[in-house]
Design brief:
Helix 1 runs antiparallel to helix 3, helix 7 packs across helix 8 and helix 10 packs parallel to helix 11. This protein is 32% helix and 21% strand. It is an alpha/beta fold. It contains 14 helices and 18 strands. It has 3 domains: 62 residues; 192 residues, Alpha-Beta Complex (Quinone Oxidoreductase, Chain A, domain 1), CATH 3.90.180.10; 178 residues, 3-Layer(aba) Sandwich (Rossmann fold), CATH 3.40.50. It binds zinc ion (ZN) (2 copies). The site of one zinc ion (ZN) has 6 residues, from loops.
């Protein structure tokens, strides 16, 4: 980074020099316009051009791969592999990486509820697969065309890529970057002992001593924060923060309602707190998670199992405000069709497995989805993060069409990974976001199945897998 900064400085200083020189030599240029350029002017111009070119080359070299890394084929490593209906830690041999791929030695990987089915489910895997869809580690090798990261970098392999040049990225939606279609480049990265090729879930994997990722998924992070905390920025913590800070961006003094106080909902609460929201109402059936929400920013916590039928009205009442004087910033009563919260984030989802703790009033997750929509005020923002809902949902047509709610999809909460991951690092460094409290259990590679059982049971809030 320092080299790059110096090179850029060199370019700028040469440009400034060139400008001054042009001003200073104006009379000489006029003089030479009749007789051609003077020898002095030509020599100066040539020297400046050469200096600028040298600086530009230095810049280009700074952005190029640090070194052409040698072959990595055959390197042994261990990973959790789903094959058939089994999940086991296997000894694998790495294949050669492609020119635009990055080899990462994994140091930490986030346990995510979406992945519980990939680790614990009974699906029959025809192709052996390393589960998970994010990780953090050290760059061990880069393909010849990689520019974004270098050997030795600390790197986040993010659950969502950002290429910066596809249609979605160019139109302001990198959370839907076309590289997210991982099927296009998800070839085998390693071989089992019998020679069978092994692929990575989402072209990332993560429950493995090594990850092979396309450059577009890799974000170098320049910080001293610990690996386990940074691994959360590839998944749950970043998704929750982004839901409060990107498309439905929480405003100071606003009313925020969050369904779910799992890792994503609690991150959303922290994001809302960082924006000085007026109130943050968190709705969560699990008692210890409600307690955690109060520690991390919630101003009120509600159990959706208590008086479930009146939950919407009660929350709308809380968001009603201090006055009904319409000429003084007031609103109609809470029953008015445009009443409700300014920002609503749905992060509860459905149950993929029966939890070992309290469960909500609807295991499909559809009730919370519908309540979240009902609680959003006309003109407000609703961000839908959760996964695992089962079934279909319907809305009253006129209200659906006319209530002017903005609905935002929850792919990574709307994160713009290259822009936002460094932002979140700074927020953690400054203490406005508490990442360490989001980790309550860590497991080694050999404990992955046990760790994911805790994620599925919801007995732990934040599970991280650490390597080496
Ligand atoms: Zn995830
Ligand atoms: Zn893209």
């Amino acid at each position: 980074m320092t080299d790059t900064g110096q090179a850029r400085g060199a370019v700028r200083s040469n440009e400034a020099e060139s400008t001054r020189e042009n001003v200073g030599s104006a009379s000489e240029t006029q003089q030479s316009s009749r007789s051609g350029l003077s020898r002095r002017t030509m020599l100066q111009a040539g020297a400046l051009a050469a200096a600028t070119l040298t600086a530009t080359r230095a810049q280009a070299q700074a952005d190029a791969p640090a070194a052409a890394t040698g072959s990595v084929a055959g390197r042994p490593f261990r990973a959790l592999v789903r094959s058939g209906t089994t999940a086991s830690v296997e000894d694998l041999r790495l294949r050669e990486i492609e020119p635009r791929q990055v080899l990462v030695r994994t140091t930490a990987s986030c346990g995510c509820y979406t992945i519980t089915r990939s680790v614990l489910g009974d699906r029959d895997y025809e192709t052996p697969t390393i589960p998970n869809h994010s990780g953090f580690g050290i760059v061990e090798a880069v393909g010849a065309e990689v520019r974004r990261v270098r050997e030795g970098d600390r790197v986040l392999v993010c659950g969502t890529p950002e290429c910066g040049v596809c249609y979605q990225c160019l139109h302001g939606n990198p959370e839907a970057c076309n590289y997210l279609n991982s099927q296009l480049f998800n070839g085998p990265i390693a071989d089992m002992a019998d020679g069978t090729g092994v692929i990575q879930q989402g072209a990332i994997g993560g429950l493995s001593e090594l990850m092979v990722a396309m450059e577009e998924y890799c974000i170098p992070l320049f910080t001293d924060l610990p690996d386990d905390e940074l691994s959360l920025l590839g998944d749950t913590l970043a998704a929750g923060l982004s839901s409060a800070l990107t498309y439905g961006r929480v405003e100071p003094g606003s009313d925020v309602v969050i369904f779910g106080a799992g890792p994503i909902g609690l991150a959303a609460a922290q994001g809302a707190r960082s924006q000085s929201a007026g109130q943050i109402i968190v709705i969560e059936p699990v008692a210890y998670r409600r307690e955690k929400a109060l520690e991390l920013g919630a101003t009120t916590v509600l159990d959706p199992n208590v008086d479930t039928d009146t939950l919407v009205e009660r929350v709308r009442e809380m968001c009603y405000g201090p006055t009904d004087r319409l000429d003084a910033g007031g609103r109609y009563g809470p029953g008015y069709r445009y009443g409700g919260a300014d920002f609503v984030i749905e992060a509860s989802g459905g149950d993929l497995f029966p939890p070992a703790v309290e469960t909500g009033p609807d295991t499909t997750g559809l009730l919370a989805l519908r309540q979240a929509w009902d609680i959003t005020r006309g003109g407000g923002h609703l961000t839908l993060l959760a996964a695992g809902q089962q079934g279909e949902i319907s809305f009253p047509t006129a209200r659906f069409c006319l209530s002017t709610r903005s609905i935002h999809g929850g792919q990574m909460g709307g994160m713009h990974p290259m822009r936002d991951a460094p932002r979140y690092v700074k927020m953690i460094e400054r203490g406005s976001i508490d990442a360490s409290s989001m980790i309550t259990a860590t497991w080694p590679l050999d404990g992955v199945v046990d760790g994911f059982r805790q994620v599925a049971d919801r007995t732990e809030l934040g599970v991280v897998f650490t390597f080496g």
